[in-house]
Amino acid sequence: MNLTQLRFVREAVRKNFNLTEVANTLYISQPGVSKQIKELEDELGVEIFERRGKRLTGLTDPGRQLVPVIERVLTDIRNLKQIAEQFSKQDHGQLSIATTHTQARYALPAVVRSFKERYPKVHLALHQASPQQIAEMVARGEVDIGMSTEALDRHPDVVTLPAYSWEHCVVVPEDHPLANVATLTLDAIAEYPIVTYERGFTGRSKIDEAFAAAGLEIDVVLTAIDADVIKAYVEAGFGIGITASMAFDPVRDRGLVRLPAGHLFTTNVTRIGVRRGGYLRGFARDLVQLIAPDTSIADLERFSNGGRSDKEEEAL
Amino acid sequence: MNLTQLRFVREAVRKNFNLTEVANTLYISQPGVSKQIKELEDELGVEIFERRGKRLTGLTDPGRQLVPVIERVLTDIRNLKQIAEQFSKQDHGQLSIATTHTQARYALPAVVRSFKERYPKVHLALHQASPQQIAEMVARGEVDIGMSTEALDRHPDVVTLPAYSWEHCVVVPEDHPLANVATLTLDAIAEYPIVTYERGFTGRSKIDEAFAAAGLEIDVVLTAIDADVIKAYVEAGFGIGITASMAFDPVRDRGLVRLPAGHLFTTNVTRIGVRRGGYLRGFARDLVQLIAPDTSIADLERFSNGGRSDKEEEAL
DNA sequence: TATCCTTACGGAATTCGTAAGCATG
DNA sequence: CATGCTTACGAATTCCGTAAGGATA
Q: How far is CA A285 from each of CA A138, A270, B252, rounded to the nearest angstrom?
């Protein structure tokens, strides 16, 4: 048994049991993958993969039990490398973050500035993706840290921590009838066509829930992934916008008015997530604290060991 | 990085950083070990071992962090094999138990009989050792199950479960003055020379504690590891014996009398232990239930996953 | 001086890629 | 008939043992 074989098995599961794809992503010949997997199965004395004729179609019964342990082994192997880097490249290295447009554009710049001051030699890689994709990337260990308001804490292989809360606001052109109302109501908003986030992005779910609970039908004429696009369409007169409050900049967004809407929609909690069982290097832990300053040391400890059990926390 | 390198590191720690011994126990040449360890260190970019000149003397700072993870990886690799065996050799295989003389001689025969009936093809290997050795053997994964009244639950890498409780008794020749007393007292026992277990064996600690608490000095003239030896010396008139109650057989031990002493010494709890993080095959779980029939299913579940966290229990 | 680790080199074993063959949808 | 897995074989790489050298207690 060797680690290469375990990696092939993991990748085969991820690639839906297509060994040709496995071979391509791991830069190896396809017969090599076949042979190694067969050898692993021979050594273990069980078939890991269900086969229909020559094709692999799924996991066998033993396979279903083996794969999670294989995943854990490979996570730990990665942890070994991370721990070593912690010492060898003290304040150097790569740190990759997957996040949504909203966080990357409005929440992270300040954080990144302080981080870069403290760790000038760490290369920060910001990957923009959808909340679902972010959760997947974290779970697979493709990025160190994920940050998103949605989906992140739904994934079983991701451990999350609340980073900060924020509220929605309504954005209208300054000559809009709503621009001067004292207190905004859901009914008032529902009168107008709405431009807001796509489903699954930046608290969109909270918006829909609020109107649904009030029994109101809304006319969403346009959806976008980011507030910049939304504001552009509001400016162009397509409707009124509902965005994250921090996406509004009074100076830059001249011609638009922001109306507080925190009392209308549930408060949103943006969460930060890491891979369960993963290990966070020192500068990654520091970044977590910059993003979520209210985190207690105990939380952070648990977090940086990827939410392992007590016993295993000690071990790391 | 490969598993061989990790095994070398683990063994080096176990063998007190003597690579020559590592080479011998793993049946490989000594330069091979040196080279592989150096290559692992090169790849990780840190030194795992502290060196004085050419000799290894201990773990470095990174080494101390890496070793527990390495141990976990190797445990999981072993788990993979065990899980596979669970399927491939359904009711076949090896099951090794480390236990003291007392358990092997008096508690286990009945259990082994039922087990063999249920699993005739499983080869049972009984290793006799001291409680400390048993704990070590379990922790290292040299045996599947350990059983002992002492020391077992002191080891951090062993998870234990109570198996059964038992009491001590006093054994005297039938013509001894104590043979006919109504209720035995510690004072009465302390009058005579005593033959009993060695320190660290079969509840000896409880015996010492009882006399110490009563402020009595006792004259232990002879100690042994097993009750058969103790009884032989009692018969030969060296003194009165204190043994485990179940070690007395009225038929076989003709000429001796057993006096109940449960009211004098703390009740003993024999525990059964497995390696933390280890995986128990089906027949091993069944053996645990035969030994400790009062175990709840929930306890057993936790036990057979070696006391891992909830998340990891699911995984197995 | 005996023990223990490292370096150097040659042979053995393993791994890996190419090419050809065969099954599946 | 295009996709996907297996088998076969030769090349390349890696691994491992022996032998010699050097450091430590």
A: 15, 17, 68
